[in-house]
Amino acid sequence: MDVQIKALQCVRCGEKYPPHPRATTCLHCREDIDRPGILDLLGEDPSDSPALKEIILHPDRSKGIWAYEDLLPVEPDFPRMTLGEGHTPLLEAPGLASFLGMDSLWLKNETMHPTGSFKDRVAAMVVAKAREAGARTLILVSSGNMANSVAAYGAVAGLETVAIVSPKVSRERLNTIAVYGGKVVRVNGTSSDRLSLCFRAAEQFGWYNANSPHNPYGPHGAKTIPYEVFAQSGGESFDWVISPVGFGCNFVGNWKGFEDLLRLGMIPRIPRLAAVQAEGSPSVVRAFEMGREEGIPGPQDTIAGGISQVVTPNSILALRAIRASEGTAVAVADEEMLAALPLLARKAGLYAEPAAAAALAGLKKLVGQRKVRRSERVLLMISGSGLKDPSSSLPAKDLSFPLIDPSLSELERTIRAG
Ligand SMILES: Cc1ncc(COP(=O)(O)O)c(C=O)c1O
Ligand SMILES: [Zn+2]
Question: What's the gap in Å between 4 CA and the centre of ligand 2?
Fold first, then answer.
């Protein structure tokens, strides 16, 4: 499948480049950092390979995402490292389904990753390519999760990580990056300013650009999710897959994974892909509604850091994925994410961060709009854990914990009072 990468192709101007582990964005489409020419991988025409199907059906879980190595764009002779990423549970959530009046509902629990988010799949891939490139230092812009992942994988691979973050990222999140040994630099300005600085530093200092999806290999880490979903669901297909969209790496990765399954003849069609964004950062949703091919730059006005960008860098492919799959895009308010978060915890036992709870908020909205029917089979991408940054999960004013003396009657009175 992708093993034989023939070329990298700019999604904006179509220019082709030879595959290279240091490739980032198209050289002709770089002037506007908000509208980069993301390079897409053109692979060999797939054959109907029984060996590849077997890998998808019976992956060797001990290898993390490298269980799927034969389907991933990596050179065969480099050492791989895994921290046990991937192979996350596919959970049926009957309590949540019945709360929403749906016949069924499924959750891909990406909070189970070593550093708590799906980004570990992406980091495993990007760090593998950095090693192919002989890099010593990785640099990226992150809202926290990708930097955590890259710092963890980079550290074990013996690489230094420089994480450029917004001053809005909470201290809890920064602490974990630092514990992995990552060097955190808080940079003022917009997400575009930080990306621009990251690209300039990578060029000037020869550091490896580990941004997803400016690194064309990033989405290929995320494309392992549909492979797993296929095997875990016994091949039963989904009508909808609903995911939060920030940089667009996860969403486009999912599309690629389902495309692989389609090309291998394992699924009859790609599920309808629904992109969820924050109302305060809706670049793909606006473009979808206006019939545009590229995300529309806008504000970054949301509490959900993972989906807060001036514009989704991988918007061209994300919009193609939505349209090709007859999917949709929906924006949710911060309050809707904050309402979905405890709902997910209480009805399904998953503690997500706001950007991940956005998938459930999006489903609620789409069901309300009758775009998703209650009888349809829906998969929600629960992309990251709330445990890394618990302060983001509930407004502080909602948290008050009574303090009592060790008296049974006081305990009873307190509990009964609610
Ligand atoms: C928890 C979580 N969900 C979703 C996203 C969005 O993923 P992507 O940037 O690949 O669109 C992110 C990105 O940081 C994230 O951290
Ligand atoms: Zn281009």
Answer: 22
